[in-house]
Amino acid sequence: MFSPNDKNRGIPNLGDLASAQNFLNELNLVDPPLHGRSFTWTNGQTDPIWTRLDRFLLSLDWFSAYPSSIQSALPRFGSDHAPVYLEFGPHTQRSRIFRLEKSWYNNDQLCSLIHDWWTETNQEGCGAFVVSKKLIHLKHYLKVWASENFGFIYVQKNDLLLEINSLDSISKSRDLSDLEVLRVTQLRQDLSSILREEETYWRQRSRITWLKVGNSNTKYFHSIANGRCNKNFIPRISVDGSWIEGNQNLGKLFSDHLGFLIGIARPSRFLWDWQHLFNSRDVVDLSNLDQPFSLDELK
Questions:
Q1: Three-class secondary structure of residue 124 per DSSP
Q2: CA quadruple 154, 160, 166, 172: dihedral positive or negative?
Q3: Residue 210 has pLDDT above 50, yes or no
Q4: Distance CA 143, CA 205 (A)
Q5: Run of H or E residues at 239
Q6: Residue 198's closest CA among 240, 152, 163?
Q7: Burial of residue 261, with CB atoms counted within 10 A of its CB: 0-12 exposed, 13-18 middle, 19 or more buried
Q8: Which superkingdom (predicted)?
Q9: For residue 104, what is the DSSP state?
Q10: How far apart are CA 210 and CA 200, in angstroms?
Q11: pTM of the model as a whole
Q12: In terms of DSSP bridges, do strands 34-35 and 70-73 run parallel, antiparallel, or are they unpaired?
């Protein structure tokens, strides 16, 4: 602990608090304020003790690079510790790539829906053209269906966490009733189901296929997926001794440099008279190329 306010009751050890403050001063570390809750650990007894044990200690260089760093606490679930996370700004936003999520397979109606969407469109033309149009049509319906059925999974997760956190706060002042205990059990079961879907989501993005199914080490999956984003992220570039920052400035810098390497497009020295070129050629009927292949042609 670094302050007497880091514990809800009891006499603080002033010697330990002084040593902790000296530790911060000697290493030039900063303990930012905690948002979301006052304490992060409880012993779970009838008259519980609440303390703040989990925190981020940030250096001054970190605050110089990320001045908008935020430390917040999430609702406690399945542990006597409340998770703490640090926000210091998002990466560059980009359009999302369409993926067939493995978590969608948990829905029993998916196969029948895909069959209906695939057969309800009637396209004319060659086989490749029909398949491409059907795939575009199927992609549109899948995105709408996924948004309606899976798009609010994070909202549901947050609602469950908030309700669990509310009942957890009530338990600090009194014992929960039988109905409230049953409600907490049901909330934890619903949250476990959502967390399994979220784990499948992150396992697919981590590109890890050698882990056993059921491994709940979602922190590892998050680190793999986010590590690729961090590796490709360019926060700033040094040009002639000065630093260029910001998405628009970096984009213009790359665009100007690429234009300098490629050069300016010059008009072609060759002029083609297409009408004169094909005057001596007979018109060829290519309509038969749109016809499907026959069995004899395939053989």
A1: coil
A2: negative
A3: no
A4: 18
A5: strand 236-239
A6: 152
A7: exposed
A8: Eukaryota
A9: G
A10: 14
A11: 0.33
A12: parallel
Bridge partners of residue 245, in order along the sequence: 236
Residue 203 neighbours by CB under 8 Å, 6+ apart: 102, 211, 221
Cα–Cα distance measured from residue 186 to residue 166, given in angstroms and rounded to the nearest whole number: 14
Helix (H, G, I), strand (E, B) or coil at 267: coil
CB 90 within 8 A of CB 96: no
Tokens 């056993």 correspond to what residue? 212
Q: 240-295 pLDDT, tens per residue?
A: 888 888 778 888 888 888 888 887 666 666 677 777 777 767 777 778 888 888 88
List the domain boundaries for the chain.
1-89, 237-265
CA distances from 293 to 13, 124, 129, 244 (A): 87, 15, 14, 58
Tokens of 2: 């670094």
Both tokens assigned to 107: 């829905």
Structure tokens given for 285: 């009927």
